[in-house]
Each structure stands twice: as C-alpha cells, then as structure tokens.
Amino acid sequence: MRAPINKYTITNLNLRKEPSKSAMIIKVIPAYSRFELIDSDDEWLKVLYDDQIGYVYKDYVSVTKVTTSNVHLRAKPSKNSQSMKVIKKHQEVEVVDQDGLWSQGFYDGKLGFIYSGYLSDDGAKSDPDKLAVFYTDMTKYVNDNKIKSPTPFLLTTDLKAKQTYVFEDNKGTWKELYRWPSTIGAPVTPTITGTFHISGRKPSFGTDRYQVKYATRIKDGYYYHSILYDPSGTRIIDDRLGEALSHGCIRLVPENAKWIYDNILDGTTVVIH
User: What is the pTM of this model?
Assistant: First the structure.
C-alpha cells in the first residue's frame, strides 16, 4: 500500500461533492490546510479532508516540487534568514506560493521559504547546452544522452514546438516512430518539465463541461490524453492542437492518445522540456 500523499490549500477552498464548480459544497477548507490526495485529473483532485471525501479545484492547491540538492528551509525569503531545517536532495516540497527568487512551501509539516533555484519538477537541474539539442534534433538528443527506458518505448514532448515524439528501441538505438502535434499547458497552468515514468491510465475522465479519452498518466494529475469531447463523450468540442491552453495535460488527436494508451507500458520513460 502506498504512503498517503498530502497536499495543501493555498486559499480557503470549497470541498465539493462532484468535480464541478456548480456541485454542492460539503465544507470550506481553510487556507494552508493539509488534506490527503486520493486521485487527480486535469482540473480536479479527489481528496480526503476531515474524514470527508470530495473534490477540490486544482488551481488552488499546492504544487509538488523536488529539491535538486540539499537546501535550507528558511523562516523568511532571505539567505540570511534563520534555517528551520535542511532538506535533503530529491525530497518533495509542497509549494503554496512563489514570489521572485523564493518559493514558500511545506516540508515535513513546516511552512517556510526555499530558494526557487533548488527546486524542479523532477529533482534534476536543467542543462542549457543539452536542451539546445533537445529543441533542434530530438533523435540526436535521446541517443547522445543515452536516455534509458525500462520498456521498448520512449516518449518525449517538445513544449516549444508543441510536438510529442514516440521512439522505439532498435538494437540499442532510439528510432523515431511517430511525431505528433500536441496542445500543452497554458502559461498559468504549465505542463511539468523533466524526466518522468508512465504510472497508470484511465479510459476517460471529465467534468460537467467536457470529457477526455485515453488518458495515460505522466505524473500526478498530468496526462497524455485526447482533445476535448462534450460531457457525454460523443462529440468533439475543442480540437485545437499546437497551442498552450490546457491545465497542464498534453492533448493529442484521439487515435494518437489511444495509441499511447494501448501500447505504452507503465514505467516507460517520458522526457518533457
């Protein structure tokens, strides 16, 4: 059994009976309160708070970041401020606010400030020289950097070009199998960046406004999935690709999302920049 995943509200937040802004409010969760995450989709989280299960809107919830080295949790946003704790490398921090060079977040139940340069989505520091190749020659990037995947496939998404690549192992060399136009996270709800591993899938999910199909989880509430259908899942209502407008998930035409859903096994490496 997995350990409970705890997150925090960043403001007073309605706990609703269903994943909809018009659904009944069960109760209001105070700002900076901890709750347990049960499941996550594109916009909504299913959570347990005060022995009650409901849904909260993702935009008002802490964002998980990972430390890239040992770093101080400080009482104030200053390198001269008191150190409350030293957080070791590759530890998860729940960030509730970011202002300039500093992030405010919870670690081990304590709220403090961390220099943002020591946080990333995957716990790795980016290398500008390597990323230059990522954006210009994806096949060269994955082979020169000897990117590993425990399955015969590798997925990458170029957020600048808004394209998703599928690579297949060909006797120890990655060969490009597909390249697909994609829609990515909007500037205020960006797609995560770094190296991740596929961890589950759902045939569909949605709200009272839309439904998506063939959802393959990258991490937490971030998925590869189809473009948007109406709530019944019978009619496409938003087929835009090559744009930055999602809640962080990566949208594909249905047949491409289905190909990933059907063929990409859990554990497959995903690289996004």
Answer: 0.93
Residue span of the structural domain in which 34 resides = 5-60
Q: What CATH number should be reported for the domain holding residue 114? A: 2.30.30.40
CA 177 to chain centre: 25
One domain for residues 27 and 115 = no
pLDDT in tens, 220-250: 999 999 999 999 999 999 999 999 999 999 9
Domain boundary among 23, 41, 60: 60
**Cα 135 to Cα 26, 109, 155, 184, distances in angstroms:** 46, 39, 14, 16
Q: Buried b / exposed e across 225-243, counting CB within 10 Å, b at 16+?
A: bbbbbeeeeeeeeeeebee
H-helix or E-strand spanning residue 212: strand 211-219
Contact, 10 vs 31, CB < 8 A? yes
CA 125 to chain centroid: 17
